[in-house]
Structure prediction request, 330 residues.
Amino acid sequence: MAHTELDLHERRAIEDMLNAKMPVTRIAAALGRHRSTVYREIKRNRFEDRELPYLSGYYGVNAQRTAEARCARRRKPVRLKDLRQAVITQLKEGWSPEQIAGRLGFEGQPVRVSHETIYAYIYGPDGQSEELARHLPSRRKKRQPRYARRPRGLVFPPERSIHQRPEHVKSRETFGEWEGDLMIFERAQGNANVATLVERKTRFAVLFRNHDRSTTHLMNRLMDVMDPLPQPARRPITFDRGIEFRNWRKLKPGIGTEAWFCDPQAPWQKGSVENLNKRARRYLPRETPVAALSNRSMKAICDRLNGTPRKCLGWRTPAEAFRGELMKLR
Prediction:
């Protein structure tokens, strides 16, 4: 339901009912508003006269003028209907606030707005009531404070770059080197997703469900899944730079596993897990109701992927190759 302001008619009704000594709860019920809305309205737009206190009180017309003056000081997307509609239209087309603001300047529009103002509108009461944040590329429900955001370089430092990864990992000769990713599904499925892991030498696949995209939840689940393996079988994992993996520092103290990261926008650098995702999509298309999948169903999918012969393994299955490597560790 869209956010709507109180109008002059409602404010006059509030004045009349207050004069009739009606309680705020009954006033709110009569207007079809939440009682908090009426309490806030009376508090914010009450007239105060310090010289003649007996004149102080709530007056509908005066309250309307006060509210309009406050609205005039609000941000442009709230005040200017045409600008607001243009911003919303481009958001729904997939444009970022920075692209919208930049395009207004490029076209020489008489009314311009900064991308920070657009973000403030999106995460403000009006934008939240229309669920505008879901059209953003990041799709966060809440925005982090502007000056509290950490640069990506600090979240994924240069020393953890894939280019610093030991050379022997590239050759696939060493067992226990993994790649990880996240499979995302249709928006209707909510935050449910499937994490995918693949061992680079044997192509052994591990898939598990998540009902949350938070990095804390994902890393805890990943450690729970990997912990039963012997330490030599769970050495480093290579991820992309998605925000889901920003708690990678928990892996080393948790299960003794290092983490490496691809370059930005370079998913081919973890080609094994990208290939696994492509294979898994045959059984987990984007419209799959992930939250309804049972553990047995997930295991069946893993077994099918790991039970298929692979040319790169000399026509052995990933399950056979993985078991053989584990036997060597004993």
